[in-house]
């Protein structure tokens, strides 16, 4: 057993994010057969990911602010602190903060045998994507 060294916080790349988004790794695999990862991700007001999907799905636990998530069908879901959003394997989606506040979540994801295929990045999210067709408050779902 040992204490993990602190990993520096880094700003995410503009090819995959719009606005300021920082990631602080928490968990990474150490041994053969281990695939779990976790990171604390902080979004400045109005920041968002590009469209993407995860080979094995993803859990996002909201720790601060209101998180907005969208899918290709146009649905937008708002998730509050203390709630967890599950995204199934290969579902294309995006994450964003609201325009008026910071948002923070802990992202949990399992890597496959090839970590480079864990996340597939697509095009940037448009303003129309952010508006969506419906907004559902996950606290009432």
TrEMBL record:
Location of the Cupin type-2 domain: 40-101
Top-level taxonomic group: Bacteria
InterPro entries, per database record: Cupin_2 (IPR013096), HNL-like_cupin (IPR047263), RmlC-like_jellyroll (IPR014710), RmlC_Cupin_sf (IPR011051)
Pfam hit, one: Cupin_2
CDD domains in the cross-refs: cupin_HNL-like (cd02233)
Protein name in the entry: Cupin domain-containing protein
Organism, scientific name: Curtobacterium citri
Classification of source organism: Bacteria, Bacillati, Actinomycetota, Actinomycetes, Micrococcales
